[in-house]
Structure to design on (79 residues):
């Protein structure tokens, strides 16, 4: 049995309609929400291992739902 997400239950489509390269070190958010922000730790196939920059909690995210924040990696965004 797999757990359903809120998005799956209500058929919400968060996929972005364009291709954008996402790499480890990028700062992203998911879906149309402005927060929370996540740092991408690793990317494999269609998933990203991300860490919430506020709470430090780790998650797996589908790449098509991730959006770069200002197109900047986390290190460049902090400068």
């Amino acid at each position: 049995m797999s757990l359903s997400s809120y998005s799956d239950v209500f058929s919400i489509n968060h996929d972005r309609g364009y291709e954008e390269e996402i790499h480890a070190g990028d700062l992203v958010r998911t879906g149309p929400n402005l927060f929370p922000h996540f740092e991408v730790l690793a990317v494999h196939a269609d998933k990203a291992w991300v860490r919430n920059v506020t709470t430090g909690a780790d998650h797996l995210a589908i790449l098509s739902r991730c959006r770069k924040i200002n197109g900047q990696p986390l290190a460049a965004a902090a400068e």
Strands lie at 26-30, 38-44, 47-52, 58-62, 66-73. Residues 23-68 form a domain with the SH3 type barrels. fold (CATH 2.30.30). Residues 46 and 71 are 19 Å apart (CA to CA). The longest helix spans residues 74-78.
